[in-house]
Each structure stands twice: as structure tokens, then as C-alpha cells.
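Take a look at the protein record below and tell me what you see:
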Amino acid sequence: MADLQALAEALIRGDRDTARTLTQQAVDEGVAPKQILDEGLVAGMNVVGAKFKANEFYVPEVLIAARAMHAGMDILKPLLAASDVQPAGVVAIGTVKGDLHDIGKNLVAMMLEGAGFEIRDLGVDVAPEKFVEEIQSGAGVVALSALLTTTMPSMADVINAAKEAGVRDQAKVMIGGAPVTQNYADEIGADGYAPDAASAVDKARELLGVA
């Protein structure tokens, strides 16, 4: 029998080869792709997220675990698409206009993907109009990152652009980054703020109402 617990543990250890092998094994044994995703990859990344929050894991461990997760996801993605499994939600993520930092954004994107969300990574220096386009094409959450105090106002620009386009109520806006605070989120009318990547997963789930 496929051992999904062992798959989760391989992810937590960051063992990419074992994660790939166990994912393929489970597929070959006829385990449903959604079950492999939930009980193997997502379960493992949930533990990684909890350890990251508790300062037991740091960025390098999370990146290694995410790499192992991607090895499994590469096998599962086409199968999930073919079996019409819906993601937990669609998140468009990017670093706002004027800001070229991407490590925090990449970490959040990996953690969200590990939690079963479909990720549309827009990269860095993203114009407000691009985020608006993503809302128009079905993103349920827009996640904005800024690492400079000077680029934080770009977050407000995205929210204003969404209002002007008449789509502000179609997606939740979540913000984060070193200088960003809950107060700032409240000030610009964002729906949520996350201080770190693991919290971003919890916040996205909360905003979309998914378990």
C-alpha cells in the first residue's frame, strides 16, 4: 500500500527523490491524486509551515521542503487537472510596482501551493493593472508583497485600481512584507495581513473560507 505518511515525512525532511518516488508509487497503485495531494504533500507542508512559525525551521529548510513538494506536484498536476480536482482557491501573487524583492514572495507562493492553492506568480515590479486583470480572470485572492517602505503605497494603488475597475468585491486582497503591518492593511482597506509565509496560508484559507 502506498504510504502517504512516508511521503509527508519525505517532504518535511526535504528529500526530493523519495518524495518523487513515493508520489509515483501511490499513483501507480491507483490512489486518487487528490488523496495523494491532501494526505501526502499538503499534510507534509502543513507540518513545515507549523515548524516555520515556531522557529524550528528557517527559510532554507522551507525552500528544500518546497523543492521536494514540487517533485511530487510535477507528477500530480496533470492528473489533478485531468480528474477535474478544483484547487483550494486561486491566488495571484506578486511584488508591487517599484519593488524588486522576491524571496518573501516566492516563499509565500511555495507555501500556498503546498497547501493546495493554484498560484499565479506575477513576479516583481507588478503594475496595479496586472493585478486587476488577474481578478478579472478569476483569482479569488490577490497577495501583494512589498519589502520597502517606499513601495508600500503601491499596495493602496492596487486596491484603488480594483475599485476603479469595479472588481474590488470579486477578490480578497492580502498584503505582507517586512515593513507592512496590520495597521497599514486596515488603513488601505486590505482584507488581510500576514506577518510570515506560514501565516499567509492560514490567512488565505480564512479569507476564502476553506478548511
